């Protein structure tokens, strides 16, 4: 797959499987929209879709013209986790050496390690492993009528390690146990209150809110966003104290000298929008 942000408005669709389960990628300015397309199964992920997601994130992560990546599902539903008929291929595959290979974990890692701003647009159904997929993104925008449930216990599956660990960090042990043991559907407002989504909006306003967020991101300093991402990631990894202090000292020295700070200050004083691309 070859994509660049110069392909503005052009959609590249990756096909797989007899039911045409696929991942579509569309570049819109500096934003890439990654679309899960498996409507027959409410956009549940197949092995090929996972491989396509890995390929898409590899290309988009390396594209300097892409600053944000949006993940959403086709047909008004976000995702239904892993396709039930593809569970062995997705979660319990084998590599060339016969070792277990979890493609969903690899997708999770590709998203959490992406150097771009990642946004999940969550609407309709968000079942099974779908919340893990959304929570791998930095920001989750949810419709107020989204249907959310984490349901591995209903089919005898243990939720993947990244999903369990992130859920416990997000909602705490007691609520994580409730969600995972029961598989209960919880209202979107309650999920928002528990921190499982970043923002919630009426379904009819979701696209407009996404556009407003993207415009805000595009007007802000790429340097500030990138270094803030690194700082938050470093904090979450609990690095050795000495290394962490040294890292922050280097960052702060660089921070005061970066040209985008100078441009931002000039723009503020001149009462104009900053031109960070020229900094």
Outline the structure in words.
This protein is α/β, with parallel strands linked by helices. The protein folds into two domains: 11-219, Alpha-Beta Complex (2-enoyl-CoA Hydratase, Chain A, domain 1), CATH 3.90.226.10; 222-278, Lyase 2-enoyl-coa Hydratase, Chain  A, domain 2. It is built from eleven helices and eleven strands. The chain has helices spanning 47-62, 87-91, 103-112, 130-136, 161-171, 173-182, 188-193, 206-219, 222-236, 241-257, 259-270; strands at residues 11-15, 22-28, 31-37, 68-73, 93-94, 100-101, 117-122, 125-127, 139-143, 147-149, 199-201. The strands form three sheets. A seven-stranded mixed sheet has the order 1-2-3-4-7-9-11, sandwiched between helices. Helix 1 (47-62) packs parallel to helix 3 and helix 5 (161-171) crosses helix 6 (173-182). The longest helix is centred in the C-terminal third of the chain and has 17 residues, at 241-257. The radius of gyration is 20 Å and the shape is globular. The chain starts with 10 loop residues before the first strand and ends in a 9-residue tail after the last helix. The model is unreliable at 1-18 (pLDDT under 50).
SSE inventory with pairings:
Elements lengths: L10 E5 L6 E7 L2 E7 L9 H16 L5 E6 L13 H5 L1 E2 L5 E2 L1 H10 L4 E6 L2 E3 L2 H7 L2 E5 L3 E3 L11 H11 L1 H10 L5 H6 L5 E3 L4 H14 L2 H15 L4 H17 L1 H12 L9
Parallel strand pairs: 3-4, 4-7, 7-9, 8-10, 9-11
Antiparallel strand pairs: 1-2, 2-3, 5-6
Helix pairs in contact: 1-3, 4-5, 5-6
Family: Belongs to the enoyl-CoA hydratase/isomerase family.
Pfam family, one: ECH_1
Protein name: Enoyl-CoA hydratase/isomerase family protein
């Amino acid at each position: 797959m070859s994509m660049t942000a110069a392909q503005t408005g052009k959609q590249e669709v990756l096909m797989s499987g007899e039911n045409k389960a696929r991942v579509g990628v569309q570049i819109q300015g500096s934003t890439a929209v990654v679309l899960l397309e498996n409507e027959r199964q409410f956009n549940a992920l197949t092995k090929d879709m996972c491989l396509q997601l890995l390929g898409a994130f590899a290309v988009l992560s390396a594209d300097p013209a892409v600053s944000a990546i949006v993940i959403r599902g086709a047909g008004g539903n976000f995702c239904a986790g892993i396709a039930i008929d593809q569970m062995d291929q997705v979660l319990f595959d084998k590599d060339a050496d016969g070792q277990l290979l979890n493609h969903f974990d690899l997708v999770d890692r590709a998203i959490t390690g992406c150097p771009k701003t990642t946004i999940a647009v969550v609407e309709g159904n968000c079942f099974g492993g779908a919340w893990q997929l959304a929570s791998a993104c930095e920001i989750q925008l949810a419709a107020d009528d989204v249907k959310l449930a984490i349901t591995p216990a209903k089919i005898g599956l243990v939720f993947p390690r990244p999903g369990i660990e992130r859920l416990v960090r997000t909602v705490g042990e007691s609520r994580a146990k409730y969600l995972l043991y029961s598989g209960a559907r919880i209202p979107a407002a309650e999920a928002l209150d528990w921190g499982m989504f970043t923002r919630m909006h009426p379904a009819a306003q979701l696209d407009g809110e996404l556009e407003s967020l993207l415009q805000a991101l595009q007007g802000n300093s790429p340097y500030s966003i990138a270094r803030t991402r690194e700082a938050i990631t470093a904090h979450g990894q609990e690095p050795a104290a000495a290394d962490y202090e040294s890292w922050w000292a280097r960052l702060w020295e660089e921070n005061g000298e970066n040209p985008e700070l100078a441009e931002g200050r000039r723009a503020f004083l001149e009462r104009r929008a900053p031109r960070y691309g020229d900094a």
